[in-house]
From TrEMBL:
GO terms for molecular function: transmembrane transporter activity. This is ECF transporter S component. Keywords: Membrane, Transmembrane, Transmembrane helix. The keyword Transmembrane helix applies. The chain crosses the membrane at residues 15-36, 48-75, 87-109, 121-143, 149-168, 180-200, 220-246. The lineage of its organism: Bacteria, Bacillati, Bacillota, Clostridia, Eubacteriales.
Length: 250
C-alpha cells in the first residue's frame, strides 16, 4: 500500500506506467476524445490516467502524469486558443491542480481503504453520506431543492447498495477506488475554477460577456455542469480498470 512512499527511486515499472498513462492522457487531448463539450469551457476525462496511475503506483507517479496533463493544457491553450484559454497560460492554474489530482487520489484511496478495513460499517456510511451530501449541495445550485435532495438520497441508496454488495467480497476496493476517483476529479475541477475566480474573475467575465458580479455564480454553475459528468465518467472508467490491475497483481 505504501509503495509510493517506500521507494526513493523509480522502478522500471513505474517509469513505464508514467510514460504510458501520460501518453494516453495526451492522446485523449490531441484526438479530442478527452473532452466533453459543455461551453464556455470543456469538461475533460484527461485526468483519469492521473487517477489510475496514482492509485496503482503512488502519488509521485500520479503527480508526474498530472504534470504532463497540465503541460499539455498549456500547450493547447497557446496553440489552439479559445476565448477562455488565457487562464491556462498561467502555470499555477494549468499545472498545480493537475499535479494534486494524483496526490489527492492516492491518499484518498489509502485512507479510505484502511478505514473500511478497520471499521467497514462506520467508515463506509460516513463516506457514502459525505458523497451524497456533496451531490445534493452541488445540484442545489442548478435544480430546485426538493429535486437536488431527492437525487442526493438516490445516490445514498445506490452507494449503500454497492457497499453492502461488495465490501465483503474480493471487490471490496470498489468504495475506496470510486471515492478516490470522485475526489481526484473534484480536486481538478474545484482548484481550476477557484484559481480562475481568484486570479482572472474580471477578465473571465469579460471574455464570456457577463458582469463581474455574476462571474462567481457562473463559475459555480460551470463546476456543477462539468464536475458532475467528469466525476461520474471517471468513476465508471477508473473502478473496473484499477480493480483489474489490482487483481492481476495478487
Amino acid at each position: 500500500m505504501e509503495r509510493g512512499l517506500n521507494k526513493s527511486k523509480f522502478s522500471t515499472r513505474q517509469m513505464v506506467v508514467t510514460a504510458m498513462l501520460a501518453a494516453i492522457s495526451i492522446f485523449l487531448g490531441l484526438s479530442g476524445l478527452g473532452f466533453i463539450k459543455i461551453p464556455p469551457v470543456n469538461a475533460t476525462i484527461m485526468h483519469i490516467p492521473v487517477i489510475i496511475g496514482a492509485i496503482v503506483e503512488g502519488p509521485i507517479v500520479g503527480g508526474l502524469i498530472g504534470l504532463c496533463f497540465g503541460l499539455f493544457s498549456m500547450y493547447q491553450a497557446f496553440t489552439a486558443p479559445t476565448v477562455t484559454s488565457f487562464v491556462f497560460w498561467n502555470p499555477i492554474v494549468a499545472l498545480l491542480p493537475r499535479i494534486l489530482i494524483g496526490v489527492v487520489s492516492y491518499y484518498s484511496y489509502v485512507g479510505i481503504t484502511k478505514a473500511v478495513k478497520k471499521n467497514p460499517t462506520v467508515s463506509g456510511t460516513v463516506v457514502i453520506a459525505f458523497l451524497s451530501v456533496v451531490v445534493a449541495l452541488a445540484l442545489k445550485v442548478l435544480l430546485p431543492i426538493t429535486v437536488s435532495y431527492g437525487i442526493g438520497a438516490a445516490v445514498f441508496v445506490l452507494l449503500t447498495f454497492l457497499f453492502v454488495k461488495f465490501r465483503l467480497s474480493e471487490k471490496s476496493d470498489v468504495l475506496s477506488v470510486g471515492t478516490a476517483a470522485v475526489l481526484g476529479t473534484l480536486t481538478n475541477t474545484v482548484l481550476v475554477l477557484s484559481l480562475i475566480y481568484i486570479v482572472y474573475v474580471d477578465r473571465f467575465a469579460k471574455a464570456i460577456n457577463i458582469s463581474s458580479s455574476a462571474a462567481g455564480k457562473t463559475i459555480v454553475a460551470i463546476g456543477m455542469t462539468n464536475g458532475i459528468p467528469e466525476a461520474l465518467v471517471s468513476t465508471i472508467i477508473t473502478v473496473p480498470v484499477v480493480l483489474a490491475i489490482l487483481k492481476l497483481r495478487k
